[in-house]
Amino acid sequence: MKKLLIVIPLIALSACSSTHTLKQLQSEYDGYTYSAYVSDNLKTQEPQKAQPEVGLNRKKLKQQIRQLASKKKQAGGRINGVISQNNLYQPSRTMLQKVASLKLGKQSQIWLKNNASLDAVITLALRNNLDIKSAKEQAESNLAKYDQVGFLDDMLAQYAAFTQDIKLTGSTQKHKKKSVNAGFPFPGLLAIKASIIDQSVEVSRQALKQTTQDVITKTRVAYHELQYSQQDIDITTKKTKLLRSLKEELESNYSTNSAELSGVLLVDIEIANSQNKRQIAKDKQQAQKARLFALLNLPSDSKLGKLDKLKSAKLSNSSAMLIKQAQENRVEISRLKASLEKMKRIIQLSEKRFYPDFDAGFSRFQNGKFSTKPKIKQNNFFAKNDAYLTETRQKYQALQSKIKALQTKTADDVQQLISNYKTQKRTYVLYQDKLLPKARTTKDISKSLFETGETSFIEVIDAQEMILNFRLKSKQALKNMNISKAKLMRIVGVNRS
């Protein structure tokens, strides 16, 4: 009986304490007021009736959704214009219309067999290349995110309309007066989310532009390699014919005892070596054709018509100007900058979510100056997600450093390609303006001496072979000069010399 008398007061005391705690919590909750930031930016004036407020919120939301739809349409237009307006190659309207009318397959193969100019090949690559198609589809898939932004908030607003009169908490008065906008911040966060989607689409658009420029550059390089391969085959074939003529002359002299057998054997070696080089050039040509057809998304056994002749590539801008253009227009840098802006918006959105403004009851205090501590509403544990924001901020700083590093590397890349271009140009000018004219003069002298009997036919053949070798070196330098310029324009980001 004594134990019962002791237990009952304890139970009663516990019940009183619990009731007091609930009343205190309910009182604090009902007396809660929003922060200045929420009142000024997110919370609207509460009308007398809840339904008109929801309708007004829905009206604003629909307006925002229409604006998002307009942004989506504009972004789609920018994506569609990347392929034809890529800053490296602008196909003519006539060429675009002609290529657009071709069907992928035999029709494209037949057309390429009769139209193998550089313009035709690049335009066909822009239409057919699978990497470009994949990058474009990836960019277009990001456009759907605009709908996700609007429809998600639309769904949340509908949820608020259905549940605004339902008692979900212990507060009967405050819940009915609570603004829908306070529950679902609008339109501030929606604008941040839309800005994130803008940057996502811009990143994918820059990725499409990068892929397009890569395909154009690879197509140009493959085309110039094919141009040189054809020149290599033609010159090596002529060289083989000259060596065979020399062999016939030596064999004739050998039969009359005016030539040695060693000379005939040496010419046989040179013929075999020349034939091997010709076969190597043919094998390279087949491999280069297969690479080009892969860029065009055509079968590897397709036929290629007559190619354009190799022409001299000119650079008129100074090195400083080209470096400046590259640091401003290089697509990799633009893509990183778009990613940086996207990360900046993500940080803004995360800060609003993880770090809401302090409540009105929060104030600074020192122990001993106040009899009671001010009440601090703690409805979030900030340290819970602080690590994620810290990591994102560090990634943001790392991305800034990466952009600066790429700009520095870009200057070095441009300088290296300019140096290579100048080296190849000097080589081309050397052979074209000095060595080849002297070789032709030597051949003419040898031919005149042979006609007067002052020299042998071997000297004439040697002079002609020297001309062919110089011509091949000249074409090789010309090819390398064009390739250097193509790669340089890719880094510069614009096809302006």
SSE sequence, one letter per element: HHHHHHHHHHHHHHHH
| Apparent shape | elongated
Contiguous runs where pLDDT drops below 50 for at least 5 residues: 1-15, 42-56, 161-186, 357-370, 372-384
* Number of helical regions: 16
Please count the beta strands (DSSP E, at least 2 residues each): 0
Q: How far apart lie the N and C ends?
A: 106 Å
Structural class: mainly alpha
Mean pLDDT: 77
Query: Radius of gyration, Cα only, in angstroms?
Result: 39 Å
Residue fraction in strands: under 5%
Give an account of the 3D structure.
The chain has 497 residues and is an all-alpha fold. The chain contains 16 helices and no strands. The longest helix is centred in the last third of the chain and has 69 residues, at 383-451. The radius of gyration is 39 Å and the shape is elongated. Mean pLDDT is 77; it is low at 1-15, 42-56, 161-186, 357-370 and 372-384.
